[in-house]
Automatic annotation (TrEMBL):
May regulate the disassembly of focal adhesions. Did not bind receptor-like tyrosine phosphatases type 2A. GO terms for cellular component: cytosol; presynaptic active zone. Residues 243-266 have a biased composition (Polar residues). Residues 239-266, 621-653 are annotated as: Disordered. Residues 31-93, 132-166 form a coiled coil. The lineage of its organism: Eukaryota, Metazoa, Chordata, Craniata, Vertebrata. Residues 332-396, 409-467, 492-523 form the SAM domain. Keywords: Coiled coil, Phosphoprotein, Repeat. The keyword Lipid metabolism does not apply. One of its GO terms (biological process) is neuromuscular junction development. Belongs to the liprin family. Liprin-beta subfamily. It comes from Pygocentrus nattereri (Red-bellied piranha). This is SAM domain-containing protein.
Amino acid sequence: YPVSCNKHTMIKVNSCGKSSQSVNLRALGNNESYQERLSRLEGDKESLVLQVSVLTDQVEAQGEKIRDLESSLEELQHKLNSTEEMLQQELLSRTSLESQKLDLMDEVSYLKLKLVGMEERQNHNVERQHKAEGLLQELRLLKNKVDELEDEKSQYERKLKATKVLLQKHLITRIFYKDVHLTSFSTDQELQKLKTGMELLIAANDEKVNWILVLRIQKDTSLEYIRVVFTFHAGKTERMEDTNTSDLSPVSSGVDSGQQSPVSQENLKNNKSIRKLWGKIRRTQSGGLQGDDLEPTEFRRGGFRATAGPRLARTPDSGRSVRDMSMPFSKWTTEQVCGWLEDYGLGQYVNLARQWVVSGQTLLSATPQEFEKEMGIKHPLHRKKLQLALRSFSNKAMEKSSELDHIWVTRWLDDIGLPQYKDQFHESRVDGRMLQYLTVNDLLFLKVTSQLHHLSIKCAIHVLHANKFNPHCLRRRPGDENKTSPSEVVQWSNHRVMEWLRSVDLAEYAPNLRGSGVHGGLIILEPRFNSETLAMLLNIPPQKTLLRRHLATNFNALVGPQAQQEKREYANASGHTPLTTTAKVRPKKLGFTNFSHLRKRRPDDSADYICPVDVAISPVLNGNPHRPQGSFRGLSPIVDRDTDRLDQIGPKS
C-alpha cells in the first residue's frame, strides 16, 4: 500500500511536470507564476514523500504488531487445546469415580444385609446352644439318677443274695434237725414269711431295673434328638455320645438283640434258683410296663419291645393299661390302640384316633382314605407304616425287621454314609419294617434322587436281609487289615471304609467319602462299582495315574478275585453304562406310592421294592468264597433289573 501511494504521487508529480512544461511552452510570459507553482508543487511533493515514509513506518509497525498478535494467538490456541485435554481427562476420572462410588455403595448394602443375616443366624445359634445346654443338663441329672438307682439296685441284690444264703442254710438246718411234731406249724409260718419277703424283694428289684432302663432309654432319645436337630453341633454331639457310649450300649441299637443286660441275667438266675426252692413263686412286674406275668425266658426290657420312640416321654404309671399282647388286636380298646400308636412313633395322630377308633378292629378294617380322613394321616409313608404294622398282626411269624425302630434307622443312615437324609427319614418315621418294603417311589418321596444313593440303600438293605436284620451286623471298628474276606468287607460301614483308605496311605482323600453312600455292601455287591468309581468319588484327578493304579491294586485285593472277575465281566458286557455320581432316578408315570391294596399285593409285585424280600442271598454273604459265575446278578443295578419302572438320566449339563 505505501509503494502504490508513492507511485501515484510520482505519477502526479510527473504529470504536473509535463503540464508545467506545456504551460511553459505555451506561455513564456507566465514563467514566474509557473516557477512559483513548481516550487509549491515540489514542496507538496516533499511533503507527500515525507508522508509516504511516515506511512511506510506505520505500516511496518502495524505488521510487527500483527505478527506479535498472531504468535500470541497461537500460544493461546495451544493453551486452549491443552486445557480441553485436561478437562476431558477430568471428566473421565470423575465418571470412573462415580462408578466406583456406586459399586462401593452396592457392596456396603450387601455387607449390611449379610451382617443382618449373620446376626440373625448368630441369635438362632445362641438359642439352639442354650437349648442344647439345657438338654445336656437334663442328661446329667438323668445320669445321676440312674447312678443312684443302680446303687439302690446293687444294695437290693446284695440283700437278695444274703437272704438266699440264709434261706439255704435254714433249709439245710431244717432237713437235718427237723422235728415234725414240734416244728411243722412254725416251719410253715416261717416259710410263708420268707416267701412274702422274697416276693417283696424281687418286686422292688424289678421296679428299680425297669426304672433304670426307662431312664437310660430317655437318655438315649435325648442324645438322638440333639444329634438329629442340632446337626451343626455334630462335633460336640459326637464327643458327648462317645462319653456316654458305655452307659447306652444295652439300648444303643433301639432293639432287643436277644441278649439281656448282665443285671437282667443275674435277676433271672436269682428267680430261677428261688423257683427251684419254692416251686411256683411268680414274679410281679412292679415297673408297670406290662400287666401280665412272663416266664423268665420271655423277659423284655421294660416289659415290651424296647423302642426308643415317643413313648419314652410317658410316665411308668401310664403304661399300666398297656396292651395284652396275647389278646387279638381287633379286641384292643381305644386307649390300648392310642398307646400303641404313641409307642409306634405316630403320637401326633392319637387325638383324632381317640375320637374315631372304637377298638383295634376299626384300624384293621379301615382303608387308606379313612386313615387320611378320620385320623388326618396325609403323609403317605405314615400311612404305609401304619398299614404294614396292621398287616403284621395277622401274620403268625414275627418279622425281625419290626424290632428296628426309626431311631435306629437314622443311625443306620450314618453307618452307610448317607447322613444327609436323616431328617427326611426321621420325619417319615421310616423303621426296619419299612426298609424291608421300601420302593423306588418311597425313596424319591424322601428326596433320594441319586442313582448311586439308591444302589447304596439297596445293597445296605440286602446286607440286613442276609443278616436277618441284626442291628449290630455292620462293622464300624477297624480290625486286621491283612486278614479281610469279602464276607467281612460286605459288612463294613462307611467309617470302616474310610479307615481302610487310611491304612492304604490314602488318608487325605478319605474325608471325601462322607455323605457318598459308600459302604462295604455297595463295594462288594454292586457289579458296576469298581476302582474307577471309587477314584471318582474320592476326587482323585485323572492325571494322577500312579495314585489311581495304587487304589485299583488295593481295591482288587479288598474285593477278592471272585468279585473282581464279576465286575470285570460286567464292565466288558455289551451295553454297559458306567456308574456316575450325577445319574438321577425317575419313577414310572403311574400313581405315586399307592398302598391301598398292600394286603392284596400279587406275588410278582415284589419287583416294586428297592430290595425284594425273596431276593437270593449271595454266597459271599455266607462266607463261601466259591460261587458260580454271575452270582451277583441278583444285585444288578436298579436300571438293569427294572427298566420299565426306573430310568437313568445322564449327567447334568
